[in-house]
Structures are given as structure tokens and as C-alpha cells.
Amino acid sequence: MQLSRAARWRREVDFSEIPGSRNALFAHSGEAFPRALTRGARALPAGSIGDDRFAMVDAETAHSLCTGLHRYLCQHDCGRILLATCKKSVLPFLQPDFVIELLPDKAVVHRNGHGISALTSPMRPMVSINTAVERFAGGPGGGWRGPEESLDDMPLQSRTGQRIPGASVREEFQVSVGLDECTAAVSKAFDHPFDGSIKQKCFRLKPEALSFSWSIGAIIGPSGSGKSTNLKNFGQGLPFQWDPAKSVWDQLPYGDKKKLLEAVTLGEAAARRSYDQLSAGERSLAQLARSLCSNGSVITVDEFTSLLDRHRAYQVCTKIHPFIMERGIQLVVAGCHKDIADWLRVNWVFEADSGELLQVQDFTVGSPPPRIAVSFEVPKIDLVMRRLETSTRSRNIFASHFEAHHYMDGLLPTGLYGQLIRTTSGELVAFHAVSAQPGQIHNAMRESRLVVLPPWQGYGIGPRASTLAAELIVASGMRLFCKTSQEALGSHRSKAPYLWRPTTTNGKPMTASLSEGFTRKRKREAKRLEGLRCLRPREGWSEAGGQTSEAHLRPSTESSLGQRCRASSSSGAPRVLQPRVYWAGPPPAEGSCRGCE
């Protein structure tokens, strides 16, 4: 890949987490591996064919993947590409020229008059954010005003159950990869130092947390959240190596093979063929049947029903449950689809991305998935933004759900005012927070964190959330300072001069920005000291000749940030980055003096 395309490639790919885009291919999770191969298919010549490209990811990630693929195909001449998938819901996001729907008795062709070949510019889903935040209040005790947000009604907890506190511990895993020019350019463009070492944190389920009696458990989470890692703690073994010279039927060491095949919904005719002659979905069912032949007390199944359409997955879950209960064994499944927890009637659910364990107390069968018709209508995404109650609550939610998806590792400010963006059904989407600037900038806030979860990236949710927050803060008479190295976000702010104003360091290298920033800070401090001459001496201030001593008022210029910057420059490796800095709100009045206010 050419070095000049590195930053653009990083923005177009679906590895939304910075560590994921630089992992070695063997280190990717089960869902990220086919995602990498999907992106590699873009470079194939005309006539490319992709099979089951979106099968091993959840619906939201598949939609985001198709949105990015649609945008890429509209902007580049990639020739003719034929994709096969069992997910009809991705069609409005992909906008193909035609769809061949394979029915049991016939094939139906659906033509799209607004397909990729007929578009001159990419088509984006319609996103609306309904904010429940009323306003922003500055000063002591200030913050966002409006209805408070709570995570007690998360979608995974659709069943009644009991949360088990302290059920997991967060551990750090490290993977090393080779450095090249492309990787270094991508890291520099996103202000993320990288030395070839990838450190990722994930939650590990404590075995002692499952002290209650159970038969079926589920580990649910998005790509790269640690599902497979947790599954290994239950004794997950290597996949069975099928003999291509024998049929699947002959390689199932189970007494009543018909009953076994009925439990996994694999037909006897398919089982009479060799494993290599089966489709991808049939192979996953054959692997499931082979796992159920194990004599162990605990059976583990990774990527459970991931390669199946959701109607087939519903049938597998409803039929395999009585099979497990009759045998009296324990089954632990892992997957990215949350619906398996309802259909399989599990006893416990572990959220791999948040580390929470729920002991389920409702064992009714969940509703089957709705029938989805072929449609090319532009999708609509309705979101709701609400404030978080306290600064502590904001930091805790960021640490548990969003920290792993943000490139910065620094400490969060003490005064953090967070907002949470979710779908109307309760799915987590994004996190936005601002912080106060005590002793630095008068009557202003700073955008501290803006994180959009990977399955929801590519829709423009981040810029919309940032703009909504800026409008609320500006309406309160304050200013909002923001800095970003993300090209799309910076471009969005540059198109709205009525709201966003670039600072004097906009577009300059980081070293120059910091140097000019310290110079301006010294000038502001000198102006403040000049204004303090008109005040009476206060208690604790020394006096010299009736004048207030400036030596006791001037702050130290050797701040920790300044020391780090000089250390970085003296090491011979200055950081040459291009941050974009903006502020929202009216400029301060000319001649105003903070000391005289």
C-alpha cells in the first residue's frame, strides 16, 4: 500500500479501534478476521466474488461495514463485484444494483434504480439525534441539565435476572507486530504513538462467580471483546479435523445420530456428504454436532450460530436446549448476536465488553426474528442523547464501555460532564463529555472525550453529537474548545464557521502549537497581573513599596506539560502532527480583564 494512502485507508477500513487496525492477522478475533479479508477484496480485479462476507459479525457491525463498502465503491472504479450473504438487512446500507433472492422453489431478481452504478455520490443513512439535554449551566455545581441516563435497562437484560457484582477482573494482553512505513503513517495521522506493541484490555470471568447451579451459559460481546479468551477458561479445545474421504455421518461418534442431527437442524442428506462438500452454514452445524459428541462435563461452542441466518439460528437454539437438558451436561456458547441468550434460554449471560454477569431467572422462549423483505429504502437511524448524573458516573461508564475504543490513555479530568447516546431500543452508541478549564480559560469548556462505538461508525454520529453539545454550551453564553486529529471531524467543523472557529494554532504541528500556546499563556498572565495592580492587597500576599509583588502571583512556567514537551524535543524525535483546534462561542469582549471582574 502506498504511504500517501495510509491515512485515507485507516479512515475507510472497518477496524474502528486503533489497536485492531495494526494487529497481526493471526491476532484478530473471529469476527475481525473476515472483516480484514473483506477489505482486502477491494483490491481484487473486476469479477470479484465474496461469499458470506457479513456472516460472522452482528447486524450493527454488518450495517456499518456495508456503509463503508458502499462509500468506497461509489468513489472508486472496482469493476463488477458479486457478494453473497444471508443478511437481508444490509441491503439498504449497501445499495447494490440488483439482488437475486434464492427462495425454496424459485429465484427472484430485485432491481435497484438507485444502485451504486447510478449514483454520483455516496448515499448515507438518515441519522437523527433527539437530545433530552435541556441546557448547560456553568459555575460551581454546573453541568448538563435534563433527564438523567441509566444503564439499568440495557437491551441484554430483556429478561429478569440478578447482576452479580465483582464477577470479572480486567486483564491486559499484549501482541507485537512489525513496523513499516504505512503503519507509522497511520499512527502519526491519528496522534497515537506506536512502537509495534499492541496492548488490549478485556474482562475475564471469575470461575468462582458461577457458584450457582446452571446448565447453559452465554458469553456475548462485539468483535475483539474477549469472548474466545473467556471461552478457553472452560476448556475449549482445538477444532476437529475432518477427514475429506469420509462423510460427516461416519465421523460423528454418537449413538443416536438422527437425534443429534435433528438437534442441530442438519439434514441427513447433508450429513451423508463430506465436510468439504457442505456450505459454510452447514459446516458450522456439523462442527456443532461434533462438539456435542464430546464426553466432557462442559461443552464449549465458539461463534455459535454466527454463520446462520437468524431464522435458522432460532430453530437451532430452540431444539438444542432440550437436547442439553436431557443429557445433563453444561454448555457454554460465545457469539456476537445477543438474540441467542433469549432463544437458548441460558442460565447466565456474561457481557464480554463490560464485564457484567447476569444470572437469568426467566426461561421462557424468546420471540422468533421478524421476516425481512428485500428493500432498498434509505435506512433511518434514530438516536437519543441524555446526560449522565455525576462526574463519577461519567468516568465509570467511559472506563467500562468506551475506554477501549479511544486512542488516548491519559487520566480523565475530575470535572467531567458526560452525555450518553443510545438507540431508541437502548443500544449503546456513543459517549461525549466536556470538562471545565479552571485557571486556564475564563467562561469556557473543553471537549474532553468523543467516542463512537465501532458498529456505529461511518454514519456521521460523532460530528452531530459534537455540534449538539457546542450549540447548548454556546447558548449558555460560554465557549467550547476542541482539538482533533481526525480528518472527517475537522472537515465537518470547518464547514460551520457560524459555530466553530479555528484557533491560531489550527493546522500547525504539535510542537509549534504547544510553543505558541505557552507564549499566549504568558501574555494572558501578564495582562492579568496588570489588572491586579488596581486591587487591594489580599491576605497572604506580600507587598513591596505599596505594590502587590508579582513574584508571588506569577505561576511557574516549568509546568509538567512544558517539561514533557522539552524532553520530547531534546530526544531528537519531535512529534510532527497536524491537530485541528477549534472553539465554539462568541469571542471575549475587547479590553476585558479577568482580574477586575
TrEMBL record:
Residue span of region Disordered: 540-597
Biased composition (Polar residues): 545-572
InterPro entries reported in the protein's UniProt record: ABC_transporter-like_CS, ABC_transpr_LolD-like, P-loop_NTPase
Superkingdom of source: Eukaryota
Name of the protein described by the UniProt record: N-acetyltransferase domain-containing protein
Organism expressing this protein natively: Durusdinium trenchii
Lineage: Eukaryota, Sar, Alveolata, Dinophyceae, Suessiales
